[in-house]
Amino acid sequence: MSHDHSLKPETMPSEPEKATLEGKNKFLGLWFFLGGETVLFASLFGTYLALRNSTAGGPSGEEIFGLELVFIMTMLLLTSSLTSVYAMYHMKNNNYKKMQLWLGITGLLGLGFLSLEIYEFVHYITDYEFTFRSSAFGSAFYTLVGFHGGHVLFGLCWLLTLMIRNAKRGLNLYNAPKFYVFSLYWHFIDVVWVFIFTVVYLMGKVG
Amino acid sequence: MKGWMGKFRALFLLSSLALILSGCGKDNLTALVPKGYGAESAMDLIILTTIVMVFVFIIVMIIYTIVLIRFRKKKGQEDIIPKQVEGNKTLETIWTIIPILLLLIIAVPTVTATFDLADETGKEDAINIHVTGNQFWWHFNYEGEEIQTSQDLYIPVGERVYLDMISSDVIHSFWVPTIAGKMDTNPENENTMYIEAYEEGVYWGKCAELCGPSHSLMDFKVIAVSPEEYDQWVADMQNVDPEEEPQDAVVQEGKELFEANNCMSCHAIGSSPAAIGPNLTNFGDRSTIAGFLEPTKENLVDWIVDPESIKPGNKMTGNYPNVSEEEAESIAEYLMQLQPSEVTPESAGN
Amino acid sequence: MSIAATQKRGFGAVLWDYLTTVDHKKIAHMYLFSGGFFFLLGGLEALIIRIQLIKPNNDFISAGLYNEMFTMHGTTMIFLAAMPLLLGLMNAVMPLQIGARDVAFPFLNSLGFWLFLFGGILLNCSWFLGGAPDAGWTAYAPLSTTSPGHGVDFYVMGLQISGAGTLIGGINFLVTIVNMRAPGMTYMRMPLFTWTTFVASTLILFAFPALTVGLFLLMFDRMFGSAFFDIALGGNSIIWEHLFWIFGHPEVYILILPAFGMFSDIFSTFSRKRLFGYTAMVFATLLIAFLGFMVWAHHMFTVGMGPVANSIFAIATMAIAVPTGIKIFNWLATMWGGSITINSAMLWSLAFIPSFTIGGMTGVMVASAVADYQYHDTYFVVAHFHYVIVGGVVFGILAGLHYWWPKMFGRILHEGMGKLAFWTFFIGFHLTFFIQHFLGLMGMPRRYWVFLEGQELDLGNLISTIGAFFMTFGVIVFLINAIYSWKKGEKAPADPWDGRTLEWATASPPAHYNFKQTPLVRGLDPLWIEKTEGKDEMTPAEPLGDIHMPNSSILPFIMSLGLFIAGFGFIYQTDNSAWLIVLFAGMAILFGSMIVRSVKDDHGYHITKEELEREAD
Predict the structure, then answer these.
(1) Region B275-293 average pLDDT
(2) Domain residues of chain B, as ranges?
(3) Which of C424, C531, C527, C434 has the alpha carbon at shortest distance from C481?
(4) CA distances, C421 to each of C116, C329, C418, C477, C488 (Å)
(5) Complex confidence, ipTM
């Protein structure tokens, strides 16, 4: 099949991710999927907002949240969204090496975010004895933030599989949509985090 | 609205009587013959919506019948191809506008009644009763009166009585169809509703939210008595002395057994607010045993000996030592003579 | 890969074919078969419920078992019978109606099916492993979080897995309809069944995640000690009610809208007239779907939300009656002036109109909040939603089955048996449920294991039970009819009903590539247009050429099996942490298969032009 071969500059379409029907389907399917994910996170946010003051005598958000750490995490994730944009830019220019490089950086930034999140959770559990089971607020907090963290973890595994699988071959019409769709997913995770940062941490500190 | 509704109600009842042989159901259980404020408000809306909807249904059925008679394929006309009509703006507008108007007729009284039934302006001066739903019984605590009771809820006729409702375990729903619509008892927050009975009587109450195996047996009664009798009942209940020693020997034995078997760790007699099990202060006056059995000694003995066989999943089973039939009879004698008041379900005209 | 090679094969080969198939038509067969099986199971449960209620104080089954019975009846009928039967019909018909060769994601289509099936099996395993869930299909907390045993755990895991399958199916249909329509098939030329599939899929996409979250919270509370619904630790049980109904109300429209679509196609075909007010029908569908998301709290009028919320939700709910009314009148107008043929498919459709109108009427009645304080959680509501779901959805499914049976299986169902099944079921249905309106108002709450003597509820319940037996008889006759048609049924031509839409422009059953040449669509009812111009087939939109087809795969089956195994691990790790091994093993199977899927390129294969030409001979 022609789409097995790496793209050459002269055969390169302007939007390689949508050049085939399969690519178009993947692109649209992921958008729909993200629509469903929006409802999923909206439900989790709703639950969190209903339970954020139900501390049952345990620690409250105001007591434990440290904005410095969360700010660093936010910066890492926002930057990783930007680097994935660079990667897609290079994909459209058919610069496969640079695309891989920027995707690698995206992954590392994501990994940094995830490590800090794990550190944050461990800190809450050991220093404040604030766990998933200590109160309804605890359950809601770890579930909302943990679901997001789980999405980041899934995204990292996805990225790793993509990069390893395609390490030895160039960009083609078969894998271009796969890379593109990943970057969409990654942006979505980033947007969700912005909401978490605002609703959970900022409102938790201020309210 | 109430005036012309009255005539329609009679008409409606007549037609539903014709529809079903069994009539409108059991007096003081059915919602179709309301005897209280909430039930009457609901019934007015039920009648109004039914009339509007039956009107719509008749129109649909007229068109439907004409279509089926006139436009069936006829013999010898198999090849006729009907005119392919795209639509008709006028017709489509008509059957959009008319339903909207009909819905407005329903929506306005609905909203009015919804706010009316949520009205709490007279609450402070009225009788307030705290209702707690439990698996599978009801606790009633009369605010400011130091009266704790269960299963039989006494209220004066013709007065708004406010109920603050909560649950001690799972969600239940408090429903006395003939007097008022239902309201859930949630475990995390109090809900408030008021009830007002128009006539004296013993009204059937039911739990209307699935709460476990004996959900269908979680009945209770609302006993509406005259205001004088109600005051009498309150005074009698307040006069109960739980420490009083009985005269009768069997009763005395029953009391000792009741205490020896640890019954008091869950049940209370008197105004103690403890309520793991039903408060038994006026047990001898109750209209039922376990909420739904005839108040006979035999039923009570059966209940004490093996409650699980009567009300599956209840919290009493297994929480006290085995009681023999003889012991249960003594306990029953003791409990049945707990009759603090002259005002009983009978006096409400059971 | 020619058709000739697929005939006369052994059982093993057929089984392997179905386990690995990604063909939407075969997946449809599997959906219909499993959905039909669960429908019989749910029907059996219903019959047991009605036998228990045949007389007062009956002790046919125990209180605990009764609660399991109605919980499983509701859960099975909604999630494992109605949904898959509809998804089956959508799979069988929708790609044909838009002139597509397959769905957008054939692999995911297969995955969606297997997830549903394994979820359903997991849920029903509970019967044999200590008891089924017993907290009602609504599983209100804290009854569901405190229910002893593992019953509710099976509910949580079973629905989570099958729900994931449904969500995948929904996304798949959406992309299919947006991207895979044949040339000329604009949105406003799509048959109503395709439209309602599209809208129902949107509802699936936006409603199911709320259930997913609700089930996760329930799962965390029951299995991992969280405190969402634990009042002592600040939990709140109303959250579950909101999440459940944010899903649950759109779910009703997910079920009824496809049925509306089927009726639209059927009325139009058997009246030999185009659908009256097509545009209005489409917009009414969209409006119903939109409003369907705004009304969930009308299930919660008695929860104590206050008069403002109750009024808003009451009015929003009443508003849905307007687009629904538009539909009813448009169907009547479609038949008006037509040349109506009455056969089994049409009988079910015609019976739908009065039955569903009653259900819609009582729907407006229960929307009136104060009146609902009386109706709520009584047999009135039971009657109402059975009028909607049986009178709407089940009638729709049966109409659709009779209508598309020839297309799906190449055989025509027997008319006589079809009519017998219809009349017994129809009479039984009204006998069972009409009286229940009155039972509810006479003071009978729903989910009651027994009703007491002396409450004047005896006669109504007896009549209701008798009706249930009539319905059972009707279902058995239909079953015999299905088997008869398989063995001896009349062979179906490509277009047995003088059809109007694209599915009738291809063979019955269609070849696995559906259309040899993609058809060119020139308007609404494309086949009818060609027929009025004297042609008997569609004009092709492309020259005969190679057809690209997807590869079969066993991975969807294995992935679902992995989740099924992991489900047991989740449920039993609360008893013994050794079960965590099972949990991880199941998840390893799932993720392992996902990695295999992403690492192995899957380009599909081509049916060459020469092969297609040979088949034509």
Answers:
(1) 92
(2) 2-72+83-117, 249-348
(3) C424
(4) 29, 27, 5, 5, 18
(5) 0.95
- Between CA C40 and CA C111 the distance in angstroms is 24
CA C423 to chain centre: 23
- Residue C29 near residue C63 (C-beta atoms within 8 A): no
Residues of C in contact with A44 (CB under 8 A): 213
**Beta-sheet pairing, B220-225 with B152-156:** parallel
- Residue C204 in contact with residue C258, Cβ under 8 Å? no
Hey, what domains does chain C have and what are their CATH numbers?
19-226+236-553+602-616 (1.20.210.10)
Evaluate whether the domain defined by A15-206 bears CATH number 1.10.3720.10: no
Residue with tokens 């007699």: B269
Name the pTM for this structure: 0.95
Mean pLDDT score of chain A, rounded to an integer?
Answer: 92
Which of C452, C377, C504 has its CA nearest to residue B175? C377
| Separation between Cα atoms, residue C389 and residue C82, nearest integer Å | 9
What is the three-class DSSP state of B181? strand
Beta carbons within 10 angstroms of residue B322's beta carbon: 9
CB contact residues (below 8 A), chain B span 45-74, against chain C: 45-46, 49-50, 52-54, 56-57, 60-61, 63-64, 66-68, 71-73
- Which tokens in the block code for residue B209? 């939210």
Residue keyed to tokens 């009443």: C318
Q: Are B315 and B267 in contact (CB under 8 A)?
A: no
Instruction: Give the pLDDT confidence of B62-95 residue by residue, as tens digits.
Output: 999 999 999 998 887 777 889 999 999 999 999 9
Give residue for tokens 């403002």: C308
Contacts of B121 (CB under 8 A, 6+ apart): none
Query: How far apart (Å, rounded) are the C-alpha atoms in residues A74 and A145?
Result: 13
Between B and C, how many residue pairs show a Cβ–Cβ distance under 8 A?
A: 299
Cα nearest neighbour of C606 on chain A: A1
Using an 8 Å CB-CB cutoff, list chain A residues near C175: 25, 28-29, 32
Give the architecture-level CATH label for domain B249-348.
Answer: Sandwich (2.60)
User: What's the rounded Cα separation, in Å, for the pair C414 and C486?
Assistant: 11
The secondary structure of C534-581 as a DSSP string is T-SSPPBSS-S--EEEPPP-SHHHHHHHHHHHHHHHHHHTTT-TTHHH
